[in-house]
TrEMBL record:
Residues 1-25 form the signal peptide. The keyword Signal applies. Residues 411-865 form the TonB-dependent receptor-like beta-barrel domain. CDD domains: ligand_gated_channel. The keyword Plastid does not apply. Its main location: membrane. It holds the Pfam family TonB_dep_Rec_b-barrel. One of its GO terms (cellular component) is cell outer membrane. The lineage of its organism: Bacteria, Pseudomonadati, Pseudomonadota, Alphaproteobacteria, Caulobacterales. Gene3D superfamilies: TonB-dependent receptor, beta-barrel domain (2.40.170.20), TonB-dependent receptor, plug domain (2.170.130.10). Residues 62-168 form the TonB-dependent receptor plug domain. Belongs to the TonB-dependent receptor family. This is TonB-dependent receptor.
Length: 898
């Protein structure tokens, strides 16, 4: 639902902007259509600017490329067409995004998730990591979009592009002074209003650029700041528990026969059913600096500096039934089913339970990510035929969680707990059987505090030469060296209170919270007691307890990559004048990995691994007729394992007889890519294109669980000493990643773009850009002896994007749709569920601007206007895992340029 105040503001703002825009457009149309004076000849000059201009330039870059690319360019100085980089990239064919906290965070390209996508900033590779990211996936939400003026997604591999991607290479380019002429300045300010919070928050950006008249020297600086306070409101179960002898209820008072009891005991029930309303306070600051020097027509030197700081504070109060997540006599083993309803998917839709343990949990977490990158690049023309370029850069992504605090307030053995999802399983009615607003009925039983850090350092150096053999043939060659350093650390001061240390009655350090501000809440208990974190810290002195280092969370990886390439580039005509452009060559890459980590308690391991890949590639472009282009590409590609999975560290569960650890011997994902496309540029600024692609995946990393005698694992017996009755001769379940069998991925992309110049004069100004992608895949998540096939995690079968725009006179507007079908997030599933996944989604955005003066523009934008809910599930039976939303967002602002 949307509050009446917010609806009124939204409707008035949109109506005012639209009426003013069309009035201005109509006035401009009338002026354009006025007949010429007698004896005069009217010459109409059409100058394309704004969003339409950026589309045309991006189309030109696509057309000029030999390989398959798509691009997005800023429509004006410091005016990127979306608020978030990931949300901008999702407009491109085959690209989808994962949203966290109401904004795009990571991307998938052609069905391959963020781990398979390589990102370069200002020409050198970087890894940007936010909270919880321990992969190679790039977190785009670390950066403000105003800091960049172009994004290029390279979908086919070329020998001169460094290895590391199965899906795509994404190039982000920040502004440089030679992009503009003379002195330029820009500033923007916006107020952002969220439909759940009804708070107006600031977003601002500024840019200054200067270059001398000859463009031999220039400097540029930009800054961007934004603040967001979304609320992620919804219902969550964590997972559902399947039938297991250790998870049987204590009894069923309604069950009249053994068959009814067996039905209850074998049905799936929610592990931690709860309403949740996470309040997020996010603050982002970004700064860029660039200087360029061109001492002569043969030489150019560029220095680019990028800094970003993302601070987030999250508070997450929950009221939950924790008995269902405890597989012991004190948990499910003590719970009695008084009444129930089980559907045809073997799932509890309704239940009345006795002897249920209820927990009120409130936690806060601070996440702080700083990203910095310095890049020095130069190019020099040794002669008219020989050119060279070199680059060196270092990027640091430093994530710190300096504070994670939570307090657990319990009331055990509650009778009359009701879970009722019969009306809507996404918004069930939950009542707890007692007054959940009375602090005297709760007991403080646990308190937790943790810190965590993740440091990613990327150092890059490289250079290449290009030689013109003649007007039709160029030869290229070069070297690239990269070093990745990853350091993970963690510690906690968790305290489980027992006996007299428990605090009965929590009125001295609690508060009442209410759930359901803008959620389709059907009923139940929506106000409840939680710990007031500030008061609870003062009452318990939790932070005075010493931090205990988590050895299983202490991991280090150093990866050194050295590669070189050779390539030929052909530009010729064949068959009576048909243009042909092609590049073909190979890249040789050597990877050396040193990884370290603890397993169990106190056992520190070091491991080494290295491997070499030879990666040939070829791209060819033909133009059999004017404005019609055929492209083809084939390449061997590789993507290295996630850095976190390479450490030998892990954990040993002696009592459960389990071992979990990484695998430092992992080799990369390897595949062969095939691409074909046809592009028809049937009119100016227009395109109709079709692309088909196939990826033969030769090696796919999956997790395996095997059974082995503990003594054969090479681990010390001391790790078992704390568990009575456990021997080194016992068989353990050993889980770790391994290089399994491969699979395949195939798909087709269709894109269409055109300004509607054929419309009547009074409707001119409209245009459309859209695309549709279909992807299918199959990989083996099991072993050769026990195969288990499914599609890739993160892969949607269909994605579609559509933007209808209007640009005329002083007014510009566009409305966009981004649609993706459902996708897997984990396979195989856990707790007896076949899989974990997320249902499909459709997002609607709106943007408009009106020129008050040539250099002063007022803007109105709407993000997630449909207030789409994220709907995550487990199992093919579609049991709800997480159902939440973050509201609509409206931004009203001004932009000034000079």
């Amino acid at each position: 639902m949307m509050s009446s105040t917010f609806k009124a503001r939204l409707l008035v703002s949109c109506a005012a902007m639209t009426i003013a825009g069309f009035a201005s457009a109509g006035k401009a149309s009338a002026q354009t259509a006025a007949p010429p004076a007698s004896g005069q000849t009217q010459v109409e000059e059409v100058i394309v600017t704004g969003y339409r201009s950026s589309l045309g330039k991006a189309l030109g870059a696509k057309r000029a490329s030999i390989g398959a690319i798509d691009a997005i360019l800023a429509e004006d100085i410091a005016a990127f067409p979306d608020q978030n980089l990931a949300e901008a990239i999702q407009r491109l064919p085959g690209v989808t995004i994962d949203r966290v906290g109401g904004e795009g965070r990571q991307i998938s390209v052609r069905g391959l998730n963020a781990d398979f996508t390589r990102v370069r900033i200002n020409g050198v590779e970087a890894i940007a990591t936010g909270g919880g990211n321990r992969s190679r996936g790039f977190d785009f939400n670390v950066f403000a979009s105003e800091l960049f003026n172009s994004i290029t997604v390279r979908k086919t591999q070329s020998a001169d592009i460094a290895e590391g991607s199965l899906g795509a290479t994404v190039d982000l380019q920040s502004g440089r002074p030679f992009d503009y002429t003379g002195f330029k300045a820009a500033a923007s300010a916006q107020g952002s209003l969220n439909s759940i919070t009804d708070r107006v928050l600031p977003r601002a950006a500024g840019l200054l650029s200067w270059s001398n008249p000859d463009k031999t020297f220039g400097v540029l600086a930009s800054v961007a700041y934004s603040k967001r306070q979304p609320v992620a409101e919804g219902f969550n179960t964590t997972r559902w528990q399947g039938a297991d002898a250790s998870d049987n209820f204590a009894g069923c008072s309604k069950c009249a026969t053994p068959a009814e009891l067996a039905k209850v005991q074998n049905a799936f029930y929610p592990r931690i059913p709860r309403y949740t309303a996470s309040k997020i306070d996010s603050e982002r600051l970004g700064v860029t600096f660039s200087t360029q020097w061109r001492p002569s027509s043969k030489a150019e030197l560029s220095l680019d500096v990028l800094y970003s700081d993302l601070n987030q504070f999250t508070e997450s109060p929950n009221l939950e039934a924790i008995s269902f997540s405890r597989s012991n006599a004190a948990g499910v083993g003590a719970t009695i089913v008084r009444d129930y309803a089980i559907n045809d998917r073997n799932t509890f839709t309704y239940g009345v339970f006795d002897k249920v343990d209820v927990r009120s949990e409130n936690g806060t977490q601070r996440d702080h990510t700083t990203f910095s990158q310095v890049t020095l690049a130069g190019k020099y023309a040794f002669s008219d035929r020989l050119r060279g370029q070199a680059r060196i850069g270092v990027a640091n992504s430093d994530y710190r969680m300096p504070e994670q605090i939570s307090f657990q307030l319990d009331r055990n053995d509650v009778n009359g707990y009701i879970y009722d999802g019969r009306q809507n399983d996404r918004t069930p009615i939950i009542t707890y059987g007692f007054d959940v607003t009375n602090p005297a009925l709760f007991t403080l039983t646990e308190m937790r505090s943790a810190v965590q850090t993740s440091l990613n350092i990327t150092r890059t150096a490289g250079g290449d030469l290009e030689f013109d053999v003649d007007q039709h043939l160029k030869l290229r060659g070069g070297l690239d060296a990269q070093q990745y350093v990853v350091k993970y650390r963690g510690a906690n001061r968790n305290q489980v209170l027992t006996g007299a240390n428990q605090v009965v009655g929590v009125g001295a350090f609690s508060k009442i919270v209410e759930f359901g501000r803008d959620f389709p809440f059907p009923g139940g208990d929506r106000k409840y007691v939680v710990a007031d974190i500030g008061k609870a810290l003062a009452y318990t002195n939790l932070l005075s307890y010493p931090l205990v280092v988590l050895q299983g969370d202490t991991r280090d990886v150093e990866e050194k990559d050295l590669s070189g390439f050779g390539q030929a580039v052909v530009d010729a005509t064949i068959f009576g004048g048909m243009p042909l452009r092609s590049d073909f060559g190979f890249r040789v890459a050597h990877t050396k990995v040193t990884s370290r980590g603890f397993i169990g308690s106190g056992v520190y391991l070091t491991a080494n691994n290295d491997y070499t890949d030879v990666l040939p590639s070829m791209n060819i472009t033909l133009e059999p007729r004017d404005n019609f282009i055929l492209r083809g590409g084939v390449a061997k590609v590789m993507a290295r394992p996630t850095l976190g999975s390479l450490t030998p560290g892990g954990s040993v569960g002696a009592s459960t007889r389990t071992v979990n650890f990484g695998n430092p011997d992992l080799e990369p994902f390897r595949a062969t890519n095939f691409d074909l496309s046809a592009e028809w540029y049937f009119a100016p600024e227009s395109l109709l294109g079709v692309a088909v692609f196939y990826k033969k995946i030769d090696s796919f990393i999956a997790n395996q669980t095997t059974r082995a005698v503990y003594s054969s694992l090479g681990l010390p017996a001391s790790l078992l000493s704390t568990s009575a009755g456990v021997s080194v001769n016992d068989i353990f379940d050993v889980t770790n990643p391994y290089n399994g069998e491969g699979g395949w991925l195939k798909g087709v992309e269709v894109q269409y773009q055109q300004p509607f110049k054929f419309l009547p004069d009074y409707l001119r100004g409209f245009g459309f850009i859209g695309n549709f992608t279909y992807v299918d895949s199959s990989v083996n998540y099991g072993t050769k002896a026990a195969p288990n096939y499914n599609k890739l995690t993160g892969q949607s079968k269909t994605t579609a994007n559509a933007t209808l725009y209007f640009e005329r006179g002083k007014f510009s507007a566009r409305t966009s749709l981004a649609r993706r079908s459902g996708f897997l997030t984990q396979f195989p599933g856990s707790n007896g569920n076949s899989e974990h996944g997320t249902h499909g989604s459709t997002y609607y955005d709106f943007s408009s601007s009106y020129k008050l003066r040539p250099n002063l523009v007022v803007t109105l934008e709407g993000i997630n206007l449909g207030d789409k809910f994220t709907d995550a599930y487990v199992d093919t039976a579609d049991r709800v895992s997480d159902y939440r939303h973050t509201g609509r967002e409206i931004l009203l602002g001004v932009r000034w340029t000079y």
